[in-house]
């Protein structure tokens, strides 16, 4: 009796196993979709990259899926032909896959356009097919919560932390809360170098009135504009001394004569300025400096080391703001550094002589920062020296020949008189 009972139990269990085997064998292969991003918090205007990754133990074939997002908060930017979207829905159509794989990744790009929160998730209408069998795979996925915050307020700091001039001295001593200063320069000074360093690196500086100083008072304005747009104006009243002659002041007649001579020679000076003097000009927001050769003034790259003992500042040349490098704590030097590119595409530092208005290549020596004349310049100087020497020798020989000719003529005339 017990034996029959055990047989009945065994038969029932066997039947259950036979029923469950087909069900277990027909269970669909699964795939996991993972949405990830480096930063779920961003500010208005910033960009966010969302990675969508497929992972499965089986090879994945064709994939067609939909990703939802809040179109009021985020804007989708499409970069691939098989990914398109807008108005809160992104469609990914990756079909006719030639080779299946167990892992695949797609990249979605969004831009934050408004304050708020956006969910990024996979929509239910998503079809993924197993590569070999073509059967639909079951899908599981996560979702992201993106928080868009306000942009950082633009800085309204338009203060100057350092203001220096050369030549001369500021009166009173510089204070960022003092906006008016005076200075006095001699009659030989026609240009005042002004160096203004701002507290906020995003603030911009413009300097006017520091060139072509006239005799008497000159108003120099240093306008600092903050990132937010507000301005502060620092004013320097520079007094240039008058030109006095040994016997007293210039007379009215002498002044008129000087003005007439100046007017007569003005056109000549303008024609020769591009050859004999340094010229700075801007073209399509690019700045160039020219004195025989043209150099393109550029910003120093991150991998370029600024020579020891120099610091960055701004100098007005021909009314154009130029980035230069001056000796630290020594604005008295007539020599400044400019980083530029020559016509052959070679980049480097050049030394500008503000007194002579010349520019030449800057070469750093082993001991300190000095300028070494290159071979072409040395040859040029040697050639000029030789020409000068030859001219002197020629003049001496010519004078000697003339004296000898006069002596011979006198001897000849003396003999003729005796006859």
TrEMBL record:
Biased composition (Basic and acidic residues): 244-255
Entry annotated with the keyword Signal: yes
Protein name: Cadherin-like beta-sandwich-like domain-containing protein
Residue ranges, annotated region (Disordered): 244-266
InterPro entries linked to this entry: Cadherin-like_domain, CBM2/CBM3_carb-bd_dom_sf
Signal peptide: 1-28
Originating species: Anaerocolumna cellulosilytica
Molecular function per GO: carbohydrate binding
Keyword set, alphabetical order: Membrane, Signal, Transmembrane, Transmembrane helix
Pfam family, one: Cadherin-like
Stretches assigned to the Cadherin-like beta-sandwich-like domain: 162-241
Listed transmembrane segments: 390-413
